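Run: sequence + pantoate -> complex structure.
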Amino acid sequence: MKIVKTIAEVRKQVKEWRHEGLTVGLVPTMGYLHEGHASLIDASHRDNDRTVVSDFVNPMQFSPTEDLESYPRDIAHDAKLVEAHGGDLIFHPEPEEMYHEGFSSFVDMTVLTEELCGLSRPIHFRGVCTVVSKLFNIVQPDRAYFGKKDAQQLAVIRHMVNDLNMNLEIIGCPIIRESDGLAKSSRNTYLNTEERQSALVLSQAVFLGMNMVKKGEKDCSVILDAMKKHIEAEPLAKIDYVKIVDCATMQQIPTLDRPALCAMAVYIGKTRLIDNFFTEDV
Ligand code: PAF
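>> structure
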């Protein structure tokens, strides 16, 4: 397993693999890897001959008030995890390698980015689409792997790949949870002991909503009211949003009459956490 810092080194390695007729999977990450990322690397290792993991905290997807500086980083830990799960190459560039002086081109999207996280993080998806496009151009993978925890991100990337005729397959992988239900996230490290306990309201609300769907409830406001009531009972929790949207458009729907995503963002103290379920997975 190799760690490289330049685009030229990634291209050289991938070119060699291509000459040998090997397939390549890409797992884009911002590092500080946990079992959620490990499951993406496992999936890529299963489907492809070689796996590239990008490990880059992308400044372009953080607004000036967000946690770019404090976002956790640990490349030595990441390298061990990637190796243990069969990854072949880590691409760990400096920001200047990805965004040279004079960089001024962006990939942007309307509609899907205007709901859910796009409302409270207006520049976020432009940063994600731009960096993911760059990673696709650099690695030119056969497949790329994204977690369903970032459900809107997954929908946005699928849409971008379709709109811009990018020649690869996007694979969405299930949310990985702690044993008590909390969805794995690098941001969980921000939580103190009391907040860690309070953070369980997110997954509890997800399970509550899933159960209502399982029992046949179709009225989105009934499901959302029950979920919100549960979260609001926790003093440290402050809801950013809890919504049910059409899977394809990310627009809110009143009734479960098509494949839908029920997604939430909730502040636990200062930490903003997300969780969700797809009705098709219930
Ligand atoms: O999901 C993430 O970690 C990031 O948004 C991604 C896809 C690696 C782009 O920076």
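>> summary
The pocket of pantoate is lined by residues 28-30, 58, 61, 128, 131-132, 150, 153 (CB under 6 Å). The first helix runs from residue 7 to 19.
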